[in-house]
Design a protein that fits this description.
globular, Pnp Oxidase, Chain A, 17% helix, seven-stranded antiparallel β-sheet, 5 helices, alpha+beta, three-stranded antiparallel β-sheet
Length: 199
Amino acid sequence: MQVDPSTLSPKDSYLLMTACVIPRPIGWASTLAADGTPNLAPFSYFGGVSSSPMTVMLSVGRRGGHAKDTAANLLATKEAVIHIAHRPLAEAMVATAADAEPHVDEFALAGLTAAPSLRVAPPRVAEAAIAMECRLVQHQEVGAGPVDVFFLEVVQLHLDDAYLVDGRPDAGKLAAVGRLGAAGYCDTATPFEVQRTTA
């Protein structure tokens, strides 16, 4: 099968893209509106960019041409907490993807505990095994949507000791949740290793 992406409708392009680029890590973003209302939403167009300084990328699509709450909040306050959801929180994470009004507190909606952060204003999910407090470095509009792409520097990490081995998160213990196509998800509960060879 050969596909020219330019011939696809936006919906078909999305469905094919999200079925091909798998698994995708999920950036579960906590932000604050300008009036202090907390927002929590997951995004699977997310990834690491740099380790020095630690920097992640979060891509937030628009709804009806308007910025989603996460994007609007990031542009207004320049801060977020990005969580990596593990398997016990998968259902709560998906619940926060609901198309809720800006005044709705997704922490309460999903039955999660909002804990204070150390270096940024948005709260973090107390139950999350990994939380990264971030500050906005750069914002770009990309694509025909457009989508809002944010580069965020990690300024503080919160790591649950129960999921660490030698001071770093262990993929198998963590069972971090990834996004597949359609309503599919996976986790890292059964990782495998392939050793690199030197040329």
